[in-house]
Specification:
- The structure holds two protein chains of two kinds.
- Chain A is α/β, with parallel strands linked by helices.
- Chain A has a four-stranded parallel β-sheet with strand order 2-1-3-4, with helices on both faces.
- In chain A, β5, α15 and β6 form a beta-alpha-beta unit.
- The longest helix of chain A is centred in the last third of the chain and has 18 residues.
- Chain A starts with 7 loop residues before the first helix and ends with a helix.
- The mean pLDDT of chain A is about 95.
- Chain B is an all-alpha fold.
- Chain B is about 75% helix and about 0% strand.
- Classes of the chains: A alpha/beta, B mainly alpha.
- At the A-B interface, α1 and α3 of A face α1, α4 and α12 of B.
């Protein structure tokens, strides 16, 4: 077992876990499957045992023990059954950065060949077609077709100040098309000089990182940075929180990065967006994991909602740092859709308890997960991306 | 053999084994990869990490000190999660840190400076620690801080074995650790009580930590003083008592790097690293 996939700090973090079990109170997966091995403490103890068998005192004296395939298989199952919501790390009394630890452990498991094999298809799609669906990457901007008054440049200009990085899900999944369609209209209305990368936009690499294939992302990163720089842009906007976070963490560039909510708030503050009086509506806001806990953006979307006349924000029982994952994170949809669905049901229960007319969020994946589960449950919940509401209420 | 020599004959190898244990853990951590230094040797990684730590500390030493006190020793985050756990943890950590510091001060001043003052008058101030005004503070502090450890240990035992919250899983290691601490504390108080009850033990200089002359204010060592009331009639070989306390203490020391107690060091690193990292944007 090669520990070089982990950083010295991450190996130290494994020793820092005191098994206090605080994480158990917050792990959404453990709340559904009460298995010790699946919770963060269980996973850390399992890797500790594996490391001890390979690098412990006896292993150094007598040589490492042969890795037990069954234990590895079980360990892999547990590590991949994670939404990467990051709540365990946030609540950990000794501040173990567990989300990044899980990602590194996935890399170790990929190296050992112990990972869900259906991830190979996704990996292949990203590496060959440069998107998660495997469709022709030239079709990335197909969602533009239903826009009225499409300019000749089809928002794919040679030069622009800002690049709008749409992301795979919003580009290819019809259920999410409304997000870029609405956002483009806002950018247009506010006179923002922006461009899309269209067919030259490649997956940001997050799905590969989330699956443990981090070493494969360098080409994607290089290509995307080059694409933005070629257009002379100084800023990139993302509607996908995972793309946004991946750019922040993995892309080394001097570009200014905005999540769409940050950019909207900037436009509001600059006086470029005004809201008209609208119908009174009660909304609740679901904090996407990659935008909230992972990127630290909690107040920006709330500020936008509060600035809209007639919009009343009712918080979910668990909100902000404590917001529960909708079940759509960490590739759980590919690995255990049933478990993801169970988490979405819990989320829907919380939403219903607020009595809100509308659920607002800022992540296309959260919208897909909540909406599709609500449909299956025959619960009439309206879920909307925040910029759609902004567009609807703009003066 | 003289007690000092016996102690150091045991302490130095114990210290060596303790450091060896820590070194063993450190060598494991250094198998990890540092971003941007993928081909660095373990030693090089160690130097880089130490350099980073030192540069960070040098930039804002007061900030590090504040985090060490509020977030490591007094575990601010735990306070927000559970008062009971916070109290237990704080009593144990603060108790250990404070006892260690006072013990060092007492040992150094009364054990060494007083001796040296016989030839170097500049150290004559040390007599204040031995028989003068400072001595009662030392006696009381040692007793009080040790009592805090004992109280923390009892709270931990009550939580683990009586309250048994669902989130806890008790393993062998947890039992060993708690029993170890409990034994060291109780044996420490017992020895203190025996010393007070039997002044001849002090005269014979059986206990290295108490080479100091008998105090006129033994009651300040309240735990030991209370016990001494019951120990006057009891006769035990004081050397045996000394070994009974010192040997387990040294074994405990060696045990630290191989037990969950290692988190004393590792979680200090994780907490400080967490507080030092650039917080996400907002």
């Amino acid at each position: 077992m090669d520990l070089s996939k982990l950083s010295p700090k991450q190996i130290l973090e494994i020793d820092a876990c005191t098994r206090c079990g605080e994480c158990l109170n917050y792990c959404p997966v453990y709340s559904q499957r009460k298995e010790e091995a699946i919770n963060p403490r269980g996973k850390i103890q399992a890797i500790k045992r594996l490391i001890r068998s390979q690098y412990g005192l006896w292993a150094r004296i007598l040589g490492p023990r042969k890795l037990d395939e069954e234990s590895l298989k079980k360990f892999s199952e547990m590590v991949y059954h994670c939404t990467l919501c990051g709540e365990c790390g946030l609540q950990c009394p000794v501040s173990i950065d567990s989300r990044n630890l899980w990602l590194a452990l996935k890399e170790v498991l990929v190296d050992l060949g112990h990972y869900p094999k259906n991830l190979d298809l996704m990996k292949n799609n990203v590496l060959t077609q440069h998107n998660i669906t495997g469709e022709d990457n030239g079709l990335r901007a197909e969602w533009l077709e239903s826009l009225e008054d499409l300019p000749d440049h089809r928002y794919q200009k040679e030069k622009a100040e800002v690049v709008y990085f749409v992301g795979c899900v919003a580009s290819y999944y019809p259920m999410a098309h409304k997000i870029p369609q609405g956002f483009v209209k806002i950018l247009n209305k506010t006179g923002t000089d922006f461009t899309l990368l269209g067919g030259t936009e490649w997956c940001c690499g997050f799905p590969l990182i989330g699956a443990g294939f981090k070493k494969e992302v360098h080409e994607l990163i290089r290509h995307n940075i080059e694409g933005v720089e070629k257009r002379g842009a100084h800023s990139v906007i993302f509607s996908c929180p995972s793309c946004y976070h991946t750019w922040h963490e993995e892309y080394k560039s001097n570009l200014k990065l905005y999540h769409s909510t940050q950019f909207i708030l900037k436009l509001i503050r600059e006086g470029k967006i005004h809201f008209r009086e609208g119908d009174k509506v009660k909304v609740t806001y679901h904090d996407p994991c990659d935008l909230g806990r992972v990127s630290g953006i909690y107040q920006v979307p709330r500020e936008i909602l509060r600035s809209m006349p007639g919009v009343e924000l009712i918080e979910l029982a668990d909100h902000g740092e404590g917001c529960k994952c909708c079940g759509g994170g960490g590739l759980l949809e590919m690995i255990d859709p049933e478990l993801g669905g169970a988490l979405a049901k819990e989320k829907i229960k919380q939403i219903q308890a607020t009595g809100a007319d509308l659920v607002i969020t800022a992540c296309q994946q959260c919208i897909r997960t909540i909406q599709s589960t609500a449909r299956r449950m025959k619960i009439p919940i309206k879920v909307q991306y925040i910029t759609d509401l902004v567009l609807k209420r703009m003066g | 053999m003289e007690k000092h020599s016996i102690f150091y004959a045991m302490f130095i190898p114990s210290m060596f084994l303790f450091l060896l244990g820590l070194g063993f853990r450190l060598s494991l951590y250094l198998q990890g990869t540092l971003e941007g230094e993928e081909n660095a040797t373990s030693w090089r990684k160690f130097v880089i990490l130490m350099g980073r730590g030192w540069r960070g500390f040098r930039k804002k030493p007061l900030w590090y000190l504040r985090v060490l006190i509020s977030d490591v020793i007094f575990h601010r985050k735990l306070y927000g999660q559970s008062f009971y756990r916070w109290l237990t943890h704080s009593l144990l950590v603060f108790g250990f840190v404070a006892t260690f510091l006072v013990d060092m001060i007492k040992g150094f001043t009364t054990g060494y400076l007083v001796e040296w003052s016989r030839s170097l008058p500049v150290f004559s101030f040390a007599h204040a620690f031995e028989t003068g005004r400072i001595r009662p503070f030392l006696d009381f502090s040692l007793e009080f801080f040790s009592f805090l450890i004992l109280a923390g240990c009892v709270l931990a035992i009550v939580r683990r074995f009586i309250f048994k919250p669902d989130q806890l899983r008790t393993e062998e290691e947890d039992i060993i650790t708690l029993l170890f601490i409990l034994f060291l504390e109780l044996s420490g108080f017992f020895i203190e009580g025996y010393r007070i009850a039997h002044p001849e033990v002090v005269t014979r200089r059986v206990y290295m930590a108490n080479f100091t002359p008998p105090s006129a204010n033994n009651w300040l060592s309240f735990g030991g003083f209370l016990l001494s009331l019951f120990l006057k009639e009891m006769t035990v070989d004081p050397d045996f008592l000394w070994y009974l306390h010192v040997i387990p203490s040294l074994i405990f020391f060696i045990y630290i790097p191989h037990s969950k107690l290692l988190h004393i060091f590792t979680s200090s690193v994780t907490v400080i690293a967490d507080r030092a990292k650039k917080k996400p944007l907002s």
